[in-house]
């Protein structure tokens, strides 16, 4: 059996094809075998008010695709542009590796891993923005 395997903590919520599903009191694991299902772990979701930096904006595009609120073909173009812009800012070796992995996952249309990889850049972005404020 192939597909996405979700491991949920107690009371964790996930959005599946527009429906919010909440896990029970125990950890659980289940497989999504339907191809192209729209799935977003709500713990990974950004609130629209939080979308105020370049990395968060690109994350939000991936999130919209995962939630089914944006068409993949339109979002893919925006994601490609956003990742290209981020690659001009994040020039260190570790960030470049993350962006390269993100681009590879985008080409495979694996939007969950695109979002996961991009989210790992948020703390780096926060440090860069904080340092720029104090200069």
Task: Describe the SSE topology.
Layout: E1 4-8, E2 13-16, E3 19-22, E4 28-32, E5 39-41, H1 54-67, H2 72-89, H3 93-107, H4 111-119, H5 122-133
Antiparallel strand pairs: 1-4, 2-3, 2-5
Structure, described:
- The protein is α+β, with helices and mostly antiparallel strands and 135 residues long.
- The protein is built from five helices and five strands.
- The chain has two domains: 1-44, no CATH class; 46-135.
- It has helices at residues 54-67, 72-89, 93-107, 111-119, 122-133; strands spanning 4-8, 13-16, 19-22, 28-32, 39-41.
- It has a three-stranded antiparallel sheet with strand order 3-2-5. A two-stranded antiparallel sheet has the order 1-4.
- Helix 3 runs antiparallel to helix 4.
- The longest helix has 18 residues, at 72-89.
- It is globular.
Principal-axis shape equals globular
Number of strands: 5
Share of residues in helices: 40-55%
Helix-strand string = EEEEEHHHHH
Radius of gyration over C-alpha positions, nearest whole angstrom: 16 Å
User: Proportion of β residues?
Assistant: 15-25%
- Going by helix content, strand content and strand pairing, the class is alpha+beta
Total separate domains: 2
Q: Please, how many helices?
A: 5
Major sheet details: 3 strands, antiparallel
Major β-sheet strand ordering: 3-2-5
Which regions have little confidence, pLDDT < 50, spanning 5+ residues? none
Terminal CA distance: 53 Å
Q: Mean pLDDT score, rounded?
A: 91
